[in-house]
Amino acid sequence: MLIENGVPSFVPTSVPRALELAEIPGIVSDYRRAAKNAIDAGFDGIEVHAANGYLIDQFLRADSNHRTDAYGGSIENRTRLLKEVMLAVSQEIGGGRCGIRISPVTPANDASDASPQALFEHVASFLGTLSLAYVHTIEGSTGAARDFQQGEVPFDYMALKKAYQQGGGHGAWMLNNAYDRALADQAIADGADLIAFGKSFIANPDLATRLKQNGPYNTPDRATFYGGLAAGYTDYPSL
Ligand SMILES: Cc1cc2nc3c(=O)[nH]c(=O)nc-3n(C[C@H](O)[C@H](O)[C@H](O)COP(=O)(O)O)c2cc1C
């Protein structure tokens, strides 16, 4: 983020390139070291970002992963980086201090795949083996429609949770995207353990209190979302 004359803007970035095969072990060890550094710095745990078209998600999806080596092609291969990273961080700091964020159908940053169900059930089943603190799933299109679909059938999030549990997973099942209190209560009744709130937390510094007493809520101001300045971050009123 760049601030020019008080106006925030995004900075240009380099054109992405495919990682060389020889570079991948270094990437995995970067994740391992970052996890260790976080714990050394006093954090309780870390969340690996495998969602929204970021690096691990780019490897997962057939439409962005064009590799012909051991990290491309089959689901087994496309999930290899995620598995290596999750094994590294959970061995380093303990699975109970690790979570992961996934977004099976979001088109964020051009993420796309024709068969997300098979792909993410494979991922969930593997995650079940790691004794993680939680798995954090974004439903639908991140920051947009919860019912957004990709692939040939509506995505079955219950089946995803089942695959995680059948893989041995007992960690909390966290959901995100466009939740309000009523929708969150319903999701918990349907078997979720945790709900992640984004925009409503930005706009309500005391969101937990407001949720407990069922409102009222400040309305998020989209104009200041990516601001990088105090406006929109530290000036929403508490109750
Ligand atoms: C200002 C802002 C910045 C965000 N930055 C990220 C990000 O860097 N990475 C990410 O995965 N999601 C990011 N998100 C998405 C949120 O984590 C969340 O998934 C999304 O807002 C949906 O949840 P909500 O409806 O409760 O806000 C961002 C959202 C907002 C509003």
Describe this structure as you would to a colleague.
The protein is α/β, with parallel strands linked by helices and 239 residues long. It folds into two domains: 43-182, Aldolase class I (TIM Barrel, Alpha-Beta Barrel), CATH 3.20.20.70; 197-233, no CATH class. It is 35% helix and 12% strand. It contains nine helices and seven strands; from the N terminus they run ββαβαααβαβαβαβαα. It has helices at residues 24-40, 55-60, 75-78, 80-93, 116-127, 157-166, 181-189, 199-203, 207-212, and strands at residues 2-4, 7-9, 46-49, 98-102, 134-138, 172-176, 194-196. The strands form two sheets. It has a five-stranded parallel β-sheet with strand order 3-4-5-6-7. The protein has a two-stranded antiparallel ribbon with strand order 1-2. The mean pLDDT is 95.
Short description:
Helix content is 35%, strand content 12%. The protein has helices at residues 24-40, 55-60, 75-78, 80-93, 116-127, 157-166, 181-189, 199-203, 207-212, and strands spanning 2-4, 7-9, 46-49, 98-102, 134-138, 172-176, 194-196. Bound molecules: flavin mononucleotide (FMN).
Global geometry: globular
Q: At the fourth CATH level, what is the homologous superfamily of the largest domain? A: Aldolase class I
The low-confidence parts are: none
Query: What is the CATH architecture term of the largest domain?
Result: Alpha-Beta Barrel
Task: Please write out the topology.
Elements: E1 2-4, E2 7-9, H1 24-40, E3 46-49, H2 55-60, H3 75-78, H4 80-93, E4 98-102, H5 116-127, E5 134-138, H6 157-166, E6 172-176, H7 181-189, E7 194-196, H8 199-203, H9 207-212
Parallel strand pairs: 3-4, 4-5, 5-6, 6-7
Antiparallel strand pairs: 1-2
Helix pairs in contact: 1-4, 5-6
This protein binds flavin mononucleotide (FMN).
